[in-house]
Amino acid sequence: MDATLLEMRGISKSFPGVRALQDVSLEVLAGEVHALVGENGAGKSTLMRILGGIYPRDAGEILLRGSRVEIGSPTQARQLGITIIHQELNQVPALSVAENIFLGREPRRPPGLVNWDQMYARAGRLLAGLGLSIDPRRRVGTLTVAEQQLVEIAKALSADAELVVMDEPTAALTVEETERLFRFIRDLRARGVGIIYITHRLEEIFKIADRVTVLRDGQRVGTYTVAELTMDELIRLMVGRQLTEKFPKEDVPLGSPVLDVRGLTRQGLFRDISFVVHRGEILGIAGLIGSGKAEVAHAIFGAGPLDAGEILLDGQRVIIRSPADAIALGIGLVTEDRKRLGLVLPMSVRANITLPVLRRLRTAFVVRRADETALIRQAIHDLDMAVTSPEQIVRNLSGGTQQKVVVSKWLQTRARVLLMVEPTRGIDVGAKVEIYRLMTALARRGVGIVMVSSEMEEVLGMSDRILVMHEGVITAEFPRAQATQEAIMASAAGRVHRGV
Amino acid sequence: MSVPFVESVLLGAILSGMPVLYAALGEVIVERAGVVNLGLEGVMLMGAVTSFASTVRTGSAALGVLAGATAGGLFNLILALLVVTRQANQLASGLALMFFGAGVSALLGAPYIGSRIAGLNPLQIPGLAHLPYLGPLFRSDILAYLAIPAAALVWWGLFRTRWGLSLRAVGENPAAAYAAGYSPPAIQYQALFLAGLFGGIAGADLSIGIVKTWAEWMTAGRGFIAVALVIFSRWHPLRIVWGAVLFGGAVALQLQFQARGAPVSPFLLDTLPYLLSLGVLLVWAGGRRHAAPASLGRVFEGTK
């Protein structure tokens, strides 16, 4: 049990503009479940990608059973006995369960054939051993996500891995399935396998992990024995530092309720979501990935049907069946995926900003160029966009400026409600502050803002009020003055905050 | 229906269908590996001209087939270089390859226009060759006999061997195949070369097996029919056989109508096989998209 299986020493990794990991060390013993935790963006995934041979590291060394190893590819990682079960499953939906399990290490039969009988028999035994009643001949694409997850775990077990990394393995599992997974994990541990367990569900750590390493902002906070730690201590270690004045939030007097949603429900994603946003208010919605918070914003915008609930705008009941309806009613959506959904990357700033309002700028079929230019100049000036000309291609702008173009587009439509999902994702720190300033300016103009974010800091820093979601329901509501990172984290992890 | 009519149509179905079958078998291999080869027409033309010229020069039809297959395989490596190594757009590259093949084959074939050769000899199967109705099927050349076994071989290769499994995985999810230790580019190169061999044989079958002469652009769109057949067979080599026979039958049928002076414009009759292909696509294509390899036509950029 005491043998050191894996040592990662002084690992550093930078991406253009971001220091993802800085001098991070991690030590995993054989027969240990080692949890790896940190907020989104703390560097967990990057560290595991380095371990899995997907990213090269900039500095540091990796030792396996005491000897230095170089892991240049996923194949090498596997040959060294390292198996990574990714959050996004790397499966081939059109192939069978058995083919997926054994892809790359099929039971062979000369000349160059697959021993299909043996493959299906082995897959069958493997699945049965895990208590799974999945036909190994079924196509993986026909399985539920949970079943696919379990197939992935079966694959790891069949590979005789010495070190198994599980990245959020329970995200799609039910309670029973999670219990079954924990039994497998304990079984693996008893066999001397080392397990790195990544999760956002902190309560799981106390159920299954022996030790925990906490990462924050790409650095290692420390490694702790789980038995000597409380949930509150763990949360404090994760969120750590004080908030600095990075958030130019002003108190804006609140106006009348502009958006009022009641009992919004969409099967399997969220249920009974009710809240009110006032003019000039920034409502933050916090929650982990998969909590359904982004889906709520999308649903209000008319992207995806509602099973129940109603939406009132300025006190009037409205029906929103499509984004076109939402736009016509004065609702804007700043998507988390601006490159795919928010912008036409190969087109100019001019085209992107005026696209939704060309109707207003035309005479018959011709766009009034002079009016368009005047509008663009005003927009660029208003948001202080770093562009050299309205003809600049959006693809070449920085993330922050791109986001301003998206926001500007919605300002042209005279939106009264702006839904912002992960508004600063992938944007560097300086530009983030500008986006926050922009939000404040919008609020001052009387726009009601719903900010959905996984970044705890910005939720705390920018919101007048904070809702927390967990598994599709609102578990807590905090006024700005009462919100703390610890309380939000606890609610996001599923603890119901009393006094809602 | 008279015996000669049925015999002619059957023979015609085999004769016209088999080159398309060979070409489509090659195409199904590359498409299962995630590459669309619209240049198939050009590959067939290269195979046709090379095999014809080789047969004229050496006097051996067997060497002609070999040369045609090799030419097709090598020609397809140009596409591999473009779409696998250089990661160019597959559709544009394929069309460019098609026109390139048409041009080069016209150039190489110019001296041979009008030449006639004995080509591949028909092999009569004793006892069967003189059956009524079915007789013509047993008086074909070697390539016609081997076409359907070739389809079975391709099926076996794709669905029974390790190579086939890896190839299908590449066509569906190259990142997963890479993570499992396979090299998507290497597999796509292999698939394109092999498909080129099939395309070359298809061309050889046309020029030295069936028509026994060389004419510019003698494939007359059969390469594209083959691409369509792959889609309507839902990327399954055995179902391609039916499509190829259907197409060949339509060609033979319209030729017979023309020969017998049916009171329909010959130009309209000429379009019959293609109308049939369109009709089949119209009926079968919808709602079957899920059968296509998931990464068909996409560029695998490797993992960052």
TrEMBL record, chain A:
It holds the Pfam family ABC_tran. The keyword Nucleotide-binding applies. Keywords: ATP-binding, Cell membrane, Membrane, Nucleotide-binding, Repeat, Sugar transport, Translocase, Transport. Residues 6-242, 247-496 form the ABC transporter domain. GO terms for molecular function: ATP binding; ATP hydrolysis activity. GO terms for cellular component: plasma membrane. It is found in: Cell membrane. It is a peripheral membrane protein. The keyword NAD does not apply. PANTHER family: CARBOHYDRATE TRANSPORT ATP-BINDING PROTEIN MG119-RELATED, D-ALLOSE IMPORT ATP-BINDING PROTEIN ALSA-RELATED. This is Sugar ABC transporter ATP-binding protein. It comes from Candidatus Segetimicrobium genomatis.
